[in-house]
Amino acid sequence: MASDPIQSGALGSSDELVNQLYGELHQIARREYRRAGSPMTLQPTALVGEVYLRIQNRADWQSKSHFLGCAATAMRHVLVDAARARLAAKRSGERESLTVALAEIASGARDDEELLCLGDALAELARHDPLLAKVVDCRFFIGLDEVETAEVLGITDRTVRRWWTRARAWIYDQMREPAA
C-alpha cells in the first residue's frame, strides 16, 4: 500500500501539491465566494487557478500546513487585487488585468472598498507583526480553526486565540481610522 506523500513528509512540487489538495483549496475558495456575495468575486475554480499561478514556482514546501498557509496568503492577495481592479475598472471603464477579466463585476463598490481597506490593514499589520497577519490569513481567508491554524504556524492553539484577538482589534482600529 503506497503512503500519502503529504503525510509521509515527501512533499513534491507546487503542481503535485495543488493536484493532491485541489479539493481542499476549491472548498476554501467556494467558502470565500459565498462569503463575498458570490457574483462580486472570482468563481471558486478561477480563484484556485489564480492562487496556483502565484505559488507555482515555489518548491520548498515544508509541510501540508506550510503549503496551505502560503495558499491562504496568496488567496488574500488575489481577492484584494481583484477588488482593487474592479474599483479601478469602475472608475476608468476598462478592464486591465486577467484577474478582472475572470471576475464578475456585479456587486456594489462598498464591498470592494471594504475588502481593499481590509487588504491595506493586513498589509500594514504584516509590516508590524507578520505572525499576526498569518493568523488572519489562516483564520479568515482559509477558514481554519484555532487548532488547524496552530498546526500551520507551529504554535499552540492558545497562542492562536490570543493573536487572533489582537489581530482583529488591530485591524478594527485600522479600518475605523479615517484616511489621511
How many separate domains make up the residues? Answer: 1
Question: How far is it from the N-terminal to the C-terminal residue, by CA?
Answer: 61 Å
Q: Name the average pLDDT.
A: 74
| Low-confidence regions | 1-9, 93-110
For the CA atoms, what is the radius of gyration?
17 Å
Order of helices and strands: HHHHHHHHH
Give the strand content.
Answer: under 5%
- The helix content is over 70%
- Structure summary, number of beta strands: 0
- Can you count the helices? 9
What's the story with the biggest beta sheet?
none
Structure description:
This protein is mainly α. It has one domain (11-176). The chain contains nine helices and no strands. It has helices at residues 5-8, 14-35, 44-55, 64-92, 98-102, 109-128, 130-142, 146-153, 157-176. α4 crosses α7 (130-142), α4 crosses α8 (146-153) and α7 (130-142) packs across α8 (146-153). It starts with a helix and ends with a helix. Residues 1-9 and 93-110 have low confidence and may be disordered.
